[in-house]
Amino acid sequence: MKLVALTGGIGSGKSTVSRSLAARGAIVVDADAIVHDLQRTGAPLLQRLADRFGAAILDHNGALDRAALAAIAFADDTALADLNGIVHPAVREEMQRRVDDLASSDHVVVMDVPLLEPTTGFCFAAVIVVDVPVDVAVARLVGQRGMSEPDAQARIAKQKSRDERVAMADRVIDNSGDLAALESQVDDVWAWLQTLPDGSP
Fold first, then answer.
1. CB-facing half-sphere around the CA of 43: CA atoms within 13 A
2. DSSP letter string over 68-100?
3. Is 21 helix (H, G, I), strand (E, B) or coil?
4. 57 near 72, Cβ under 8 Å?
5. Of 48, 51, 79, 173, which residue is the least packed, with the fewest Cβ within 10 Å?
6. How far is the C-alpha of 176 from the C-alpha of 37, rounded, in Å?
7. 5 pLDDT exceeds 50?
8. What is the count of structural domains for the chain?
9. DSSP, res 121
């Protein structure tokens, strides 16, 4: 197994890159999908979130209202730290289980994560960062997700800076252009990944 971390800020197009890598043969372990599964109606993690943040984060069916939770968590540093403290360990445990199941595979396994913090302890062959300028990310969040510009800017401000993310990268994919330009870069990265040994470079 060749384990690769794929990360990028909100609005960077990380999910598009993840799908492109999957189309080339990678197995993707998607942290966002794991979070959604762990927060499903009736799940123990959802109850822990409701205990901490109150019933206002649940809709009338008892499902998580993600917008309500985000409004609380991203407005307060302590609340955000508490959210991460509840969610990250559970996500890491599930990611570890999935990676363990793939340990004998000869595939490239891409761990698609918005943050690298929950991946501490994993041995990556490479870290790939998807990068866009802040103004591009804001425009995408407003146009594609329906956020207001102040909300988009606030969400971005709570994440690592572009410089911090790029400093962690073995390869950077610039997703400020069109899809053809992105796919060309993914081709280059995919070819490069084939040259790496398993584990850390």
1. 16
2. HHHHHHTT-HHHHHHHHHHHHHHHHHHHHHHHH
3. helix
4. yes
5. 51
6. 31
7. yes
8. 1
9. T
- C-alpha 170: how far from chain center: 17
Tell how strand 27-30 and strand 171-174 pair up: unpaired
Per-residue pLDDT of 105-134, as tens digits, reads 889 999 999 876 656 678 899 999 999 999
C-alpha to C-alpha distance for 173 and 189, rounded to whole angstroms: 8
What are 58-85's pLDDT values in tens digits?
A: 999 999 999 999 999 988 889 999 999 9
Among residues 196, 154, 152, 153, which one has the least CA distance to residue 171?
Answer: 196
Q: Dihedral angle at the C-alpha atoms of 33, 34, 35, 39, nearest 10 degrees?
A: 100
pTM as predicted: 0.86
CATH of the domain at 100: 3.40.50.300
Are 73 and 83 in contact by the 8 Å Cβ rule? The answer is yes
Residue 145 lies in a domain: yes
